[in-house]
Design a protein that fits this description.
The complex is a heterodimer of chains A (about 550) and B (about 270). With about 550 residues, chain A is mainly alpha-helical. Chain A contains 21 helices and no strands. Chain A has 2 domains: about 260 residues, no CATH class; about 240 residues, no CATH class. In chain A, helix 8 packs antiparallel against helix 9 and helix 14 packs parallel to helix 18. In chain B, helix 3 crosses helix 4 and helix 8 crosses helix 10. Chain B is globular, with a radius of gyration of 20 Å. Classes of the chains: A mainly alpha (about 550), B alpha/beta (about 270). Chains A and B meet through helix 10, helix 16 and helix 21 of A and helix 2, helix 3 and helix 4 of B.
Chain lengths: ~550, ~270
């Protein structure tokens, strides 16, 4: 370099300029996200989704206005609290449901720039206002305010102040929750915990019907009590403040508004505290303190799988450990039981008539097993999904890929066996254990289904692999794999079910057992032939496997 | 002279229209510490992937310890250790579980695999986190673990893709000493690195690949002599001025033509 040049003095940007710059960055990110890698399916999705969302948002705003208008005209202003509760839930919960697992702008990355804390704080708030759920909620609030203005114009000034405070409290709370979630999602364990909780929550919804039917009448008073308590929450306070003003009880209106402002202040103070921590650079890395261990730690020898080589045993052990450390995958084990619960439980009343198994309890076990096969089949069709960069090792190791797939197939069979045991115990406990003939015929059908799944699944796992990440929800297999999987399921479950039910009705279930056994024998031969070919297939598909599974 | 440890004959790899590796022929003698250099995108990782069986060559032949890699892949893989780009780790295992797994995949019996895993964890100073998953390791720890996994079966050839990147100076010193001892015992080490000082200090021989083609190969002294004579031929006046030996970085820049870029400057930088 010719010499040390004097750098021109840099202007120190004000808060407004910094916020504007970051808003521009956000817009560019959004625009590029819309542009990048979109295919016709995505575009079709947008064409369908965007008008639907617009309709929901505008329709919601109009509904809020109309509902408020009628509530005030019929002298039922307390109902506004319920409308505000709906807005509150939409504002706080929708971003968690739809956005928590998506990657978005991490505010920590902004901290490398000379950013002042007020900018950081304001950016966080403005970002929160641009959230679709927040924008929708604000539009609904505007609709509600319009309803008040049309029905009781004299209420508007007070209602506007209360609803503004309500909006501010919502915004602060939303950013606070987002900030906590962001911290939780920054760590692998947090991400996985959240995914597990999320899936469990969705599954818990399945139980609502059963719980409601069996214990609904007893739970009703408690639920009513809980609903009454929402009045001390921001939507309840805002609604009551407007209602008190409508009834000319100014003292009550001011007291509720003061409490609402207190909530807003508390959320704002907590948010500020949280953001200060973040601004100063908090520790969110995965590294932990070393564990206290004795010097010269011993390593326990690996597992033994009688009848199989050391490498097959090693891969099998790895598969088990991977599965046990994958919360969402572990949950798949309880899905068949949860989904089948309504049919197995001896529900009373009108629903028993709609239960097809009430008249044919013999079919409960085979049907549950068929359902189990449907739920767990996908695991065999993308069996390298969680290997990540580890697939490089599997390809570089002095082991035939046949052994890798064999170990994975053994693990899959173990999983099916374990699930079968759970289903059998469950039905045995709540209904009655299946008879010997039903059990034997079902096992023969299951053997056929597992062998077919493994044969087809091994080929598809190597032909069309898709990388899955542990901490992500809604991960898709390749399109062709899904189509083939559905086809195989259709043939197995519909075909197998047809044979089973026909033989059962003719009281010749043994015949179905013999047919399933013969087919399973043929499937076993085919499976072994195809298994031997997986080594060659893996060699030929190395590029695809590495390209797809080793993506950063 | 004994049989070369690694031989490539007209090795080619195409990705569609792109020729990533173009007719590369080279030989690496047994016991050599061999540096494989090149600018970004030159074809280093593609070559190392082909040499370790991770990628099928479009054309050409690879002989490892006299065996044809394509004809006897399992036998060849038994003799080599690899630290590929991306490290090939199973991140949901602990370090001990992973080393144990790798040892058994290379055919070690259970007790030997466990013993060597414990030894390597101690040597790499990774033994204080027995319950931590690899996913929670720092980058440097992952690198050390990948190196440990590559040597657990006592390979005769070690392929290392950027082995010291992200490893702290103390650990790097230990690893270099370990690798040197391995070469003294006849192990061949084939290494790629962007840090030319490391390559210069460790390697006796180097090859340089540029735009898919092998542009230089030999001992560092041979390369230096070649470049110096070229420089003298181009500018005889400079012959007398050059009193210091050319560094590997200077040799590399002369061969791949990077000296011109290095001389450019951004006038507004302080």
């Amino acid at each position: 370099m010719a010499g040390v040049a004097t750098a021109p003095a840099q202007a120190v940007l004000g808060v407004r300029e910094q916020v504007a710059l970051i808003a521009e960055l956000r817009w560019q990110l959004f625009r590029n996200a819309l542009r990048a890698g979109k295919n016709w399916q995505d575009i079709l999705g947008y064409i369908v989704l965007l008008p639907t969302l617009a309709l929901m948002t505008l329709g919601g705003a109009v509904s809020m206005g109309v509902a408020t208008y009628f509530l005030l005209n019929r002298n039922q202003p307390e109902g506004i609290g319920l409308l505000l509760l709906a807005i509150f839930l939409a504002w706080q919960l929708l971003p968690i449901l739809f956005g928590a697992f998506a990657v978005e702008l991490d505010f920590r990355t902004l901290l490398v720039f000379p950013l002042r804390f007020p900018t950081f704080f304001w950016v966080s708030l403005i970002y929160g206002l641009l959230d679709p759920a927040a924008a929708t909620s604000l539009l609904w609030l505007a609709g509600l305010t319009t309803g008040i203005a049309l029905a009781r114009p004299e209420l508007l000034p007070w209602a506007a102040v209360v609803l503004l405070v309500f909006a501010a409290a919502n915004l602060f709370l939303n950013r606070l929750i987002h900030s906590w979630l962001e911290r939780l999602l920054a760590r692998r364990r947090g991400r996985e915990l959240l995914i597990t909780v999320f899936i469990l929550s969705i599954l818990a919804l399945q139980l609502f019907g059963i719980v409601g039917e069996r214990w609904g009448s007893r739970a009703k008073p408690y639920l009513q009590k809980a609903a009454g308590m929402t009045v001390v929450l921001p939507p309840g306070l805002a609604g009551r403040s407007v209602a008190e003003a409508a009834r000319s009880n100014l003292l009550g209106a001011v007291a509720d508004a003061a409490l609402l402002a207190g909530y807003g202040g508390l959320f704002g103070w907590l948010l500020r505290r949280r953001l200060i921590h973040k601004y100063r650079g908090e520790e969110v890395s995965e590294s932990r303190r070393p564990e206290a261990v004795a010097a010269g730690a011993r390593v326990r020898p690996g597992w033994v799988l009688p009848g199989f080589s050391g490498s097959v045993a090693a891969i099998y052990e790895k598969e088990v450990r991977y599965f046990l450390r994958n919360g969402p995958m572990l949950i798949t084990l309880i899905i068949p039981v949860l989904i089948f619960l309504p049919l197995v439980f001896p529900t009373g009343g009108s629903r028993s008539g709609s239960n097809p198994f009430a008249r044919a309890p013999d079919l409960v076990f085979p049907a549950a097993v068929a359902y189990m096969v449907m739920v767990l089949s996908h695991l065999a069709y993308n069996s390298l999904a969680f290997e990540g960069y580890g697939v490089q090792f599997l390809l570089a190791a002095p082991v035939r890929f046949r052994d890798v797939m064999l170990a994975k197939n053994l693990f899959y069979t173990t999983l099916i066996g374990l699930e079968l045991l759970i289903v059998w115990l469950f039905i045995g406990l709540f209904l009655k254990p299946p008879g010997l003939l039903v059990l034997a015929t079902t096992l023969a059908a299951l053997a056929l289904a597992v062998l077919v799944n493994l044969t087809v699944g091994n080929v598809l796992s190597l032909q069309f692999p898709r990388r899955f990440d542990f901490g992500k929800f809604r991960q898709r297999q390749s399109g062709l794999t899904v189509v083939v999987l559905l086809g195989v399921m259709l043939v197995l479950v519909v075909g197998g079910g047809f044979v089973f039910v026909l033989a059962w009705r003719w009281h010749k279930l043994w015949l179905a057992g013999v047919i399933f056994l013969a087919l399973a024998g043929a499937a076993l031969v085919l499976y072994l032939i195809m298994l031997d070919r997986t080594s060659r297939l893996a060699e030929a598909r190395r590029d695809v496997l590495l390209g797809e599974l080793c993506r950063p | 002279m004994s049989e070369p440890a690694i031989v490539t004959e007209n090795l080619v790899r195409r990705f569609g229209e792109l020729v990533a590796v173009d007719a590369v022929s080279m030989a690496v003698e047994a016991g050599q510490f061999f540096g494989f250099l090149g600018p970004n995108g030159a074809g280093k990782s593609t070559t190392i992937k082909m040499l370790t069986g991770l990628l099928e060559p479009t054309a050409g032949r690879i002989l490892i310890l006299g065996r044809d890699l394509q004809k006897e892949p399992v036998e060849v893989k038994r003799q080599i250790g690899v630290v590929p780009e991306g490290l090939a780790l199973f991140e949901r295992l602990t370090g001990a579980e992973y080393l144990n797994f790798v040892g058994r995949m290379y055919g070690l019996n259970r007790s030997t695999a466990a013993q060597r895993a414990a030894d390597l964890l101690g040597f790499m100073e990774l033994a204080d986190r027995p319950k931590t998953l690899i996913a929670d390791y720092s980058h440097g720890m992952k690198k050390k673990l990948a190196l440990a996994a590559a040597v657990i079966h006592g390979p005769r050839i070690l392929f290392l893709d950027e082995p010291f990147e992200g490893v702290d100076a103390i650990a790097a010193g230990t690893l270099k000493a370990m690798l040197h001892r391995m070469t003294e015992r006849g192990v061949t080490i084939f290494l790629t690195s962007h840090v030319l000082e490391i390559v210069e200090r460790l390697c006796s021989h180097v090859a340089i690949i540029h735009k898919g083609k092998l542009v230089a190969q030999g001992s560092i002294e041979e390369l230096r002599a070649g470049v110096e004579s070229r420089l003298v031929a181009a500018s005889p006046a400079a012959a007398g001025e050059a009193t210091e030996k050319l560094t590997l970085e200077q040799i590399f820049l002369e061969i791949v033509g990077g000296a011109r870029v290095a001389a450019q400057e951004l006038s507004w930088l302080a």
